[in-house]
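Data card: per-record layout.
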Amino acid sequence: AAILLRLNRMLVIYAAEVARLDDLCIVVNPRHAGFYHRFLEFEEFGRLTTFAKVNGAPAAALRLDLRFVRDVIDRVQGAGAGRDRLHDFLFGPGNYQQVMDRLLRNLCEPALTREWFTYFFPDEAALDGVEPSAGLERLRAFSRAGPPG
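The structure for this 149-residue chain is written out next.
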């Protein structure tokens, strides 16, 4: 669980502090949803569905309010260590700074190549249901651009 927590800590800190997003949405097997509820305070949204990329396995959509995460980070940073072991581990001054340093050092690397984009969104139909406010037209243009090179 410690490795998974470290990976998710990096993801959450990146989304909340570097990208300054409002929400982080993930899809997990329902068996694993409890982990995300307990340790990272994700909440369910949407209905249970299946995910073709993993042989039709069940999938639960989870959402994390990153404004809440920023509030927790501010509280933990201001209080110092010792109040909450989990939040100290995730966002305590030493751990938080180490993650931020690593993220900022690697920031210039590309986040999503066209190759990976087309893997996750193999055709225009994969974008059906995406809200226009989520940059749908930019996503459609990116998908029409074709593979790199």
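Known properties of this structure: The two ends are 40 Å apart (CA to CA). The helical segments are 2-18, 33-40, 66-79, 85-91, 93-105, 114-120, 136-144.

See the next section for split statistics.
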